[in-house]
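Entry 14. Structure prediction run on the chain below.
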Amino acid sequence: MPKGANIGLASLSEDTGSVVVGLSWSSAAGDGDADVSVLLLDGSGRVRSDADFYFYNHPAAEDGSVQLLGKVPTENGSEDRIGLDLTAIPADVERILVAASQYGGASFGDLNDLRLTLSDRSGEALLGFSITDATVETAFIFGELYRRHDEWKFRAVGQGYETGLSGLATDFGIDIAEEEEAAVPVVDGIPAQPTSSPHDAPVSVSGSVAGFGSGSGLSDALSAPPPSSPGDAPAGSPAPSGVTAAESDEPPAAGRRRGTRTAKKKVTLPRTAKKSLAENDSWKPARLFPVPSYKSDREREVRATSVLLSVMAEVPEFGRRLTAGFGAPAGRMQTFTEVSLPHGDTPKRPDGVIRVERAGKLWTALVETKTNGNPLKSEQVQNYMDIAARRGYEAVVTLSNDVALEGTPLVEVKTDGRRKHKVSLWHLSWAEVAHQAQMLIRHEGVGNAAHVWLLQELLHYLQHENSGCHGFQNMGASWVPVRNGIDDETLCQGDPRAVEVVESWERLIRQVCLRLGGELGQKALPVQRAQRGTDPKSRRAALADRLCEEGKLGAELRIDGTQSVLSITADLRTGKIRTSVDLPAPAGGYPLAVAKRLVRALEAAPADLHVETLVEGRTGPRGTLERLRPEPGDLLPKDGAAMAGFRLSLFKGMGNTRGAAESGFIRSVDDAVDRFYGSVVAHLGPFEQRRPSRAKATAGTA
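Output returned:
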């Protein structure tokens, strides 16, 4: 769509009661990021109250009409997704603004490929809008959905603000208050967790927490004049078929409302565990979901499906979080297991069924589960897709330890294009399920103590060694042949086994991000550095050729709240894993003072940390932290060359086996990332210039 154009959703699809809006961008340097926000406006063009403003500290509406689904990695960057249940939007809301903002001095001109995509319930893209004229703006209204004669329409807005999220919010009636950020205990650089197993900890209810302004970095240019109303649609190029010029009957501006919103009480796990009454460590607490020694994979699948679906139905926040991304509406949820459905000569039994009711309409998904690393079977999933299409169901959801990759489907299925009814196929990794439970009970909070306990028991079950729900745990059959081929230099470019290893490595890195993000309560995403327009298959083939040539697997990931990119390199020739981060040297400081400041910041880092001074065009001074602590001046180039920054690295022996056992490659990568982040990255705050903190409104942190 061109800027300023609009179109009715009913003309694009018959199923637009629930839509997903995706905002995407990329950065050549891999360091671009932004936060999405949604504003609900009434007929006066203002929010009805501050509760109509959805952003990282207020990510979902109680009625499920709006839900920020979070970021997912794409081939060229990342995409932030928003679920909108248009049937649940209150009748007095006439417009829904979809926006994004930058922070820490960054602007949208630093990002590439700014784009909005709107998809229907099945995940099929209906429209797209690209912003190509971004420069110094720090906030952008990408687009808006609005009502016209009982129909929802979309307008491509592309309106920028130089005053950031606060300028955008106040322009539509949000009052923003600044408060001191509450101190959070830190242990080894990671926000403190319970001192004993979190699964044995009681729950506590905290007091109310300010929903806006608590360390949110929204104070920039609060008094700056806002730009003209986005209701005055800018001119655009001639609209394509079905798209009309922007309507001019926007309501006039109204006065701003007053009053700072206070978030409702949330329940999370406490920071310290209640003292156990057990006489000794051999006493095991009673569990809601015990994990005995199963005799078969089938028993594991039945048990895991029943446990997960029952908790989804009982804990609305959790069930809604998992199903919103599938296009399910917000409503009353029921779940079922071992349902028999007619299909040909013999009935089929999906592992589970999820049904959501809203306004007398049903949304239904069939669930197929695999545990213990067992692969999904295409024939089985195809049968469920056919059943869903014939019965008018909306989705099929697969669950397994595997992690889905863009451009590489886990199962191949065929769809009958002649069928009017569309069925969407979605996949969840058990690692993602555990991540969502962990985010809710340890960082974001849920409605009551009983729900925390249920999620606590679910998380304990998923993490038990006998559950079979452990996420990605096997590098695949090609791992050993590729590793041996690199050792004896017989692996050639173009070998399909190298591509399989690259895909497994990418799955492992995605899972590392999920696990680390759940522990920290921050977004963690892999950084993609690919040329625009590169398809996943070509990109992975190029990485496989590089693996054959260099014998190395490499990845980068960014953790929200830090400026630096964490690099992970597995050198299959030397058998070592290198975790590293590059720090730019602070501007304007004396070289020796900068070196001393860095060494002081690394006081708690391990002695074997490798520190290298970055000098343009050549290798700079380097050494271990143990040697540099008494002599920080050894980091200064002898010829007085300018220091561009520093590279900090830790090395660890690489596991050889393809699995996740103690001696396996997967475990060695997990351990390397945990050690490097906890002992190095988490302590760099005093040295690197951090962007403004974006603390979540989380209870139970005192």
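Residues 178-263, 690-702 have pLDDT under 50 and may be disordered.
Filed with the rest of this week's runs.
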